[in-house]
Structures are given as structure tokens and as C-alpha cells.
Design a protein that fits this description.
Blueprint lengths: L1 E3 L7 E3 L2 E2 L12 H11 L12 E2 L15 E4 L12 H13 L4 E6 L2 H7 L9 E6 L7 H7 L5 E6 L16 E5 L11 H14 L3 E5 L5 H4 L2 E2 L2 E2 L10
Parallel strand pairs: 2-5, 5-6, 6-7, 7-8, 8-9, 9-10
Antiparallel strand pairs: 1-2, 3-4, 11-12
Helix pairs in contact: 3-4
Length: 239
């Protein structure tokens, strides 16, 4: 499954893996789970088993057919390092990214322990950006795991931000995305949680991207912070 994306910080999504299971507090109102149920009801082949983690062999080489350079969010409908996906499947996925060096691939995980465990087996070409999701202080250890990974570009997706992140250390981190939760049951995000992160980014000269305030009516709430749009990004190193 691949598609042009509405996600503000990417261009295209590529989903050779779909489905997931809840891993931490940020997963409570998972947008991918809601979307999977809709796609299953619509008869989409890749979602015939709903949100059960699946590896889709026929979608693995899709980026090789895209000749124009793209910014690609990998597995927006899953977690690349999910425990139901084998080491071999993950390494094959990264091999495709290694070959498609004209694209920039953005990989995101909450399972930073497995990322770290597999990291030495992965060829970290410069076109692969590796990130971890951090929702509040309790998940801050994922940043420590990411710091030990040999990816050229490392980023944080602090979304949904459901609490403050105390003692944020951005050493070795190249990009920070922040966003509030959206959709049914969305938990509120306080402005001082956001500005605290933004201020650390400004101080350390780390590119800062503010995705959204979120809420049930996220479009109405917008993505302006202190009267400006923050859409900073690292420089892509595609070849």
C-alpha cells in the first residue's frame, strides 16, 4: 500500500507492513487502527485481516518503480520493528531503502529496544532517517536508544504529546516533530509542553516542526505556534 500523504512532514507513504498492537500510552487512540478498520470495510486487500500485523511481499519493491525522488514515510500504518515481523523481513525492507538512494526514507518506531538490537545489522545509507516516538517523560528512554543507532539522520516524533518531557536532551538528534492528538477522544495538549520543547530546539539549533494542535476538530485548531508556522526540516542527503 502506497499513497500520496496528507502528513505535513512527508510526501508519500509506503506500507509493506501493516497492522500493529498497542505498545504505550500514546497508542490509546491510534489513527492507523481506525483507518485500517475503514479500509477493511471497504474491501482493501492489504487490510483483509484488519489491524493484524502483516508483511506484504508484493509491495516490498514499490519504491524502486518511483523514478522521481520522494520523501517517503515508511510503514505509517504499522511499526517497522513490531515483534511479529521477523529480523529477515526488516533487513530486506532496509535493503530496498539502501538500493533506492534517490529517495529519502523516514522510519519511525516506538520499539526502540528492538531497533537498537538490530541496528548493527542494518546498512545505514544517508537516505534513511530513523526516528522514535516519544509521548511524555516516561518514554524518554527511547531517545537514548536512538542516540546509539548509526543512522545519519535521527529524529523524534513527539506525537501525540500527552504530557511534558522533562530534561529533554537533543544531543545527536537532527530533527524534532511535535503534534497533539487528533480524532475521537483526543487528549488535550498544553502550550507550555510544546514551547518547552521548541525552546530546547531553538537553543540547540535543532530543526523544529510543529505539526498540529490536534483535538477533535484539528483543522480548526490549526498548526500555528506563537503566531508562526514552524516547518523546519533537516537537509536530505539523497544520491
Amino acid at each position: 500500500m502506497s499513497t500520496n500523504s496528507r502528513i505535513e512532514w512527508t510526501e508519500t507513504t509506503w506500507n509493506p507492513i501493516t497492522g500493529c498492537t498497542k505498545h504505550s500510552a500514546g497508542c490509546l487512540h491510534c489513527y492507523a487502527e481506525r483507518m485500517s478498520k475503514r479500509l477493511q470495510a471497504m474491501g482493501a486487500e492489504a487490510y483483509q485481516f484488519g489491524f493484524t500485523p502483516m508483511f506484504h511481499e508484493h509491495l516490498l519493491e514499490k519504491p524502486l518503480s518511483w523514478k522521481k525522488s520522494r520523501m517517503i514515510f515508511v510503514n505509517s500504518m504499522s511499526d517497522t520493528f513490531h515483534e511479529d515481523i521477523t529480523d529477515e523481513q526488516i533487513l530486506r525492507l532496509f535493503s530496498i531503502m539502501n538500493h533506492a538512494r534517490w529517495h529519502t526514507f523516514q522510519v519511525l518506531t516506538k520499539r526502540s529496544e528492538r531497533l537498537l538490537k538490530l541496528s548493527k545489522k542494518i546498512k545505514w545509507t544517508p537516505n534513511i532517517w530513523q526516528g522514535v516516538t516519544v509521548e511524555h517523560t516516561a518514554t524518554r528512554s527511547r531517545i537514548e536508544d536512538l542516540r546509539l543507532v548509526a543512522a545519519h539522520t535521527k529524529f523524534l516524533s513527539i506525537e501525540p504529546l500527552i504530557g511534558p518531557i522533562a530534561g529533554l536532551n537533543l544531543s545527536g538528534i537532527d530533527w524534532v516533530i511535535v503534534g497533539g492528538e487528533s480524532g475521537p477522544g483526543a487528549r488535550p495538549m498544553k502550550k507550555d509542553w510544546v514551547t518547552g520543547i521548541r525552546d530546547v530546539c531553538v537553543k540547540t539549533k535543532t530543526p523544529f516542526f510543529f505539526k498540529q494542535w490536534g483535538g477533535v476538530r484539528k483543522k480548526e485548531n490549526g498548526r500555528t505556534l506563537d503566531n508562526r508556522i514552524w516547518d523546519e526540516m533537516p537537509i536530505s542527503e539523497v544520491q
